[in-house]
Every structure is written in C-alpha cells, then in structure tokens.
Design brief:
Blueprint (H helix, E strand, L loop, with lengths): L27 H35 L2 H4 L4 H17 L1 H11 L1 H18 L6 H15 L2 H10 L4 H12 L1 H16 L10 H23 L24 H10 L13 H9 L1 H12 L5 H11 L3 H28 L4 H17 L1 H7 L9 H33 L6 E2 L13 E2 L2 H8 L11
Parallel strand pairs: 1-2
Helix pairs in contact: 1-7, 1-8, 1-9, 1-10, 3-6, 3-16, 3-17, 4-5, 4-7, 4-16, 5-6, 5-10, 7-8, 7-16, 8-15, 12-16, 13-15, 13-16, 13-18, 14-15, 14-18
C-alpha cells in the first residue's frame, strides 16, 4: 500500500477514471481559462444580485418604509433577525439538493423563488406581511453562498479554490458600493402605480433577479462529468476527440478529490459530516473569520476612537481584513473534506452557523448604543477570539493527522495487499477504491492541506 501513498495526488493505474480515454492532447491551461470564463463570472453576477437584494431593506428604510407600514424600530429589528433563522438552518439541506438535482436546476429555481419574494416585498402594508416576507427571503436565499462555494470546489483543485471563491465573493463589495446609488435612482418612481419609492426598490430589484434566474438555467454549468461545454466534440477538423470532461475529473482525482466523478447519496455521508470534528471547528472559524492582525487593530481603534475621521479609517481597515479572509477560510475547509455529499453538508453547516450570527449583530449595533457601540465591538472581539482559537485548532489537528497517516497509524486492511501497518480497527475493505469511497478524507491515503 506504500506505493499508493508515495506522493500526494498519486492515483493507481487501475483507479484512473475512464482509463480507455486518451487525454494527452489537451492543453490544461487553455481548458482552465475556458472553465473560468464559463463558471465564475455568472456566479459573481448572481452573488451581486443576492447581496443587493439582501441589503435593499436598509435602503428602503431610508425612504419611509417604517412609517408607511406602521412599524417601530424594535419591530424592524425583529424582522431583520428572523431572516437569519431559516437562512442558516436550510443551508446544509440546500447543498444536498444542489448535488442531487444539479446546479442548473436547483440554483435557478432558488434564485427565481427569492426574486418573487423580493418583488412581493413591494406590496406589504403591515408588520405581519413584513416579517413573513423576511422569513421567506431567508429560506429562498439560504443555499446561495454555500452552494456556490461547494459548486466551485467541485470544479477546481484545492490550490485553485481560494482565488476563484475570492473573485466571485468580491461582487459583494461591488453590490455594497453602488446599491445605495441605485436606490436613489429607483425611488424617483415614487407614486407610480400608487406605490411609494421604497416599494419600487424591492420590485425592480426582485424583477431583475427573476430575469437572472431564467437565464441561469441555460448559463449555469453542472458538474464536470455532465457539463455540456466539456465534450469529446471539442476538437479541430480531422483531429481526434479531446475528452475535456474526463481530463477535468482526472486532475481533481489526482488532487485527492476521488469523488469528483460523482457518488450516490447515502445518509452515511451526512453522518460522517456530523461526526467529523472539522465540521464543528469550521463553524468557529467562519463565525469569527479568524479576524486577527489588521482586523483586530481596526476594532481596537473603533472601540477607543472619539474622532469620526479615525473611526471611518478603522471601518475601511476592518473591511480590508474581512473580505480577503472569508473566501480563503471557506476554501481551506472545503479543500480538507472529501466526498461530494459530505463536503456539501460540512460547508452548509459551517457557513450556516456563521450566518446565524447575523441575527446577533443586527441587535447589538442599535442606534441606542451610538456613537461608540461598545457592546457590538465587544461581541466582535469575542468572535475574533473564537475564530483565532478555532483556526489554530484546525491547522494543528490537520498537521497531526497527516503525521499519523505518514506513520501508517490509519492504514486499513485491504484484501490482497500486505501491509504491516494495517489495523482492522481502521476498517477492512476489498479494495483501495472501496476504502476511498467509504471513508472520504478519513482514508489513510488522503492528505490534508495546512
């Protein structure tokens, strides 16, 4: 069994995906550029819509939402809070559906539904309707971010995930930059159709999302084994076919993503995620974003500053620390979980728990606590500590586990293979492939990235 673990990413000849297919003529760099163009830009646009729709309620508040529907500021905060409950708890379930129903179907349907809910925000007239719409919006938007992260992890090697996730995630900053300007333009429709300006913010942005959902069904690619643009027909006249889909799956399997060719759903994969310590530590990482260093300095300044100019500087400093860390944190978690369904559940749980903390932050940065907001900053400091501790635990434990596997302490018993380190307590299997499928990243040949 030593030859199977001699180098990270090695794949035994008898385990090569569709070994009868010759992929030697494929230009890897050219193919990856094509995948980047087909996969990332549309996801970034969809996340921009997602972030704009989620933040539109703040813009609507500026244009008389509260008095028009006869609610108080505490009621407004309750409505914002309830958004995060279905948003957080439905994320793991959504990722499982994403894998089973295909991204082009599930993501498009989810976007279409949240577009409808967003549009219906424009006809609410009381507190009950407002709370109902926020709950439905949280439910329909739930799977977007973890779904896209999981989807990207199904296309790229572990060393490539962070950059791609960061590119798509950067659209959130773009949304924040001009959503307010867009709202200023939309509210000029005040009175049209006997609807106030704030209602048109919801209606216009909701209708735009619905249109994006309709296009998404044809634009979003599925997984590498079924993506329509990765076919054997992509070749020059007279040349032999180039099986690009097979090539993509092989390069992923060579990067320890052995389930890249697909796997059948089993509840045991869900249980693996729930029993895995990495899932629970990842929750702490995403909760705190491991915001030490620059981010910590920024929040210290915010806590002690009495100067508006210095506080504004600290806000920009904090943002510059938060946005690079989030995509890299989720990429780190995704790259260390093998098994398509296990990874989908783990990402859903970790990101869902992190988003649940949005319900906390909504309530600790109240106008009553201005201008210092010490309660809010104090809770953020607690999050930073949790993120820092969980990051150290995650990296240390992965390093120790790799060392144990290098020493053979995790070796399984494989029929027909003599291995002095093999131990029945690690499992007994008829083949190495059977061990890989059953154990995922728990397989003794898997190596974690630190």
């Amino acid at each position: 069994m030593e030859d199977l673990k001699s180098s990270e990413g090695s794949v035994a000849p008898d385990q090569v995906y569709r070994p009868q297919v010759d992929t030697s003529s494929i230009n890897e760099r050219r193919l990856m550029r094509k995948i980047d163009l087909r996969v990332i830009p549309w996801l970034a646009l969809l996340y921009l819509f997602n972030f704009m729709d989620r933040g539109s309620v703040g813009n609507a508040k500026l244009y008389n939402l509260l008095p028009d529907i006869h609610i108080t500021d505490p009621q407004y905060l309750i409505a914002l809070t309830v958004f995060f409950i279905p948003y957080a708890f439905f994320e793991p379930v959504s990722n499982v559906f994403l894998r089973r129903l295909r991204p082009s179907v599930w993501l498009s349907m989810m976007i279409f539904l949240w577009g409808i809910v967003m549009t219906l925000h424009g006809i609410i007239h009381n507190y009950g309707g407002f709370v109902t719409m926020r709950v439905l919006l949280g439910l329909t938007e739930a799977g977007m971010y973890p779904g896209i992260v999981y989807y990207i992890s199904s296309w790229y090697k572990r060393s490539e995930m962070g950059t791609r996730i960061a590119i798509f995630f950067s659209s959130a900053t773009v949304a924040g930059a001009f959503s307010g300007l867009l709202a200023v333009a939309i509210v000029k429709m005040d009175g049209i159709g006997n609807r106030p300006g704030w209602a048109w913010i919801f209606i216009i942005e909701g209708l735009a999302t619905i249109v994006a959902a309709l296009f998404s069904y044809w634009i979003i690619q599925d997984f590498p084994d079924t993506a329509k643009f990765l076919t054997e027909e992509e070749h020059s006249a007279g040349a032999r076919p180039r099986w690009t889909g097979v090539f993509v799956i092989r390069r992923l399997q060579a990067d320890m993503q052995f389930s890249a060719s697909g796997e059948k759903f089993r509840m045991s994969y869900v249980y693996q995620s729930l029993r895995d310590w990495k899932t629970w530590v990842a929750m702490g990482i995403y909760m705190g974003f491991a915001l030490f260093g620059v981010g910590l300095v920024a929040y210290i300044i915010l806590t002690v500053s009495t100067s508006p100019a210095l506080s504004y500087f600290a806000v920009y400093l904090a943002v510059s620390a938060i946005y690079p860390i989030i995509p890299n944190s989720v990429a780190w978690v995704a790259s260390n979980v093998e098994g398509t369904y296990k990874r989908s559940v783990t990402l859903g749980i970790a990101i869902g728990f992190g988003n649940l903390n949005g319900a906390v932050t909504v309530n600790v940065y109240r106008a009553a606590y201005s201008p210092r907001y010490r309660l809010g900053h104090g809770i953020v400091f607690a999050y930073i500590a949790i993120g820092f501790i969980c990051t150290i635990i995650f990296g240390t434990f992965l390093q120790r586990e790799n060392a144990r596997r290098d020493r053979g302490e995790r070796d399984e018993v494989i029929e027909g293979i003599q291995n002095k380190h093999a131990d029945p307590k690690n499992g007994s299997y008829e083949s190495v492939q059977a061990a890989r499928i059953d154990k995922g990243d728990g397989w003794s040949g898997f190596r974690y990235t630190i």
